[in-house]
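User: Can you help me understand a structure? I only have the sequence.
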Amino acid sequence: MSRFVSITEARQAPGLRMACLRGIPSPWTEAAKGLFHVKGIDCQYAAQSEDDPENAIAAWAGNSSVPVVAFDDEPLRTGWVEILLLAERLAPDTPLLPSDWEERALVFGICQELAGEMGLGWAARNMLVRQGFESDGAEGFHPKIGKFLSRKYGYRDGEDYRARVMDILQGLSARIEGRDYLVGDRLTAADIYLAVFINLVAPLPEDKLPMNPRMRPTWESAADDVKAAASSALLAHRDRIYEEFLELPVPL
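Assistant: Let's start by predicting it. Here is the structure, written out as tokens:
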């Protein structure tokens, strides 16, 4: 992977660029990295640096969320669907969406259950926000971070995020049983999204996912019954996808 450059440099560069956070394995960002890596697409990664003005990502994209993907002078892409479709367009010879429309619809549906609103990433993040509120920061996000995230990403008191996370994990566990891939007989975007998003409740060990040490306790704080909803087969699939297709240790 190319070295990180400043946001200012990335804004001025041609080609494919992506704004990230350093040291934090945001699954939305890691999924985009995974797509580009599998497809062999050269991407210049960027992060806030000392040379950038304050809040450089927000100044570029309108808010501070990552990833922000730029390609030449086309409009910026921040949603997982748009990023996936761009990757497919740039490297069509290594498809991660099936040509069969039913299988393709299934891949999009599984990715939505992982990356979309009410999906695994969204629900797990809000679950960890709630754990932080209820434990005064002993588990989940520290309440100060939780308040920021709750305002930014639509936390709602009435939602049962834990049940949502467990339902998705149990469904994926049943889906992968006896299969080599989630859809069809080859790697698809669904396998990549699964591999990175499951880290929110059952992260890879430090030697494979060397995240900011202040973040690891948060990512490891899901309740035991939540972790148990991810079957051994599902975790083994995650591990295989990383080992065969993605980068290890994960470059952050």
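Now, to help you interpret it: Residues 120-135 form the longest helix (16 residues). Strands lie at 16-19, 44-46, 68-71. Let me know which part you'd like to focus on.
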